[in-house]
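Subject: Sanity check before I submit

Could someone independently write out the structure tokens for this chain? I want to compare against mine line by line before I put it in a report. The sequence has 105 residues.
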Amino acid sequence: MDYSVVFVTAPDEEEAARIARIVVEERLAACVNIVKGIRSVYRWKGKVEDEHEVLLVVKTGRHLFDALEKRVKELHSYSVPEVISIPITEGSAEYLEWLAHELRD
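---
Independent answer below. Compare away.
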């Protein structure tokens, strides 16, 4: 099985925790880390924005990306949420075995 880390930003810890709990409960992710205190500078609708956000670091199977992306979009307050997948090319065998056990087939 192939795995990935998916980055999702959220406006606050409450929304991040709600999304994290749901995607783990639904087995779209085995684990989600919530990182507070990030600052995002980005262009949106022709204006440079500078906002505090929360980062979700989602560990999942690559075969679940489409379902995870769909579910995040359903749950998220942003009209265009960040949902970016990076493949895991190496990892400890025990961790990857655990990851496989916790995800949907």
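---
OP: Matches mine. For the report I'm noting this point. The mean pLDDT is 97.
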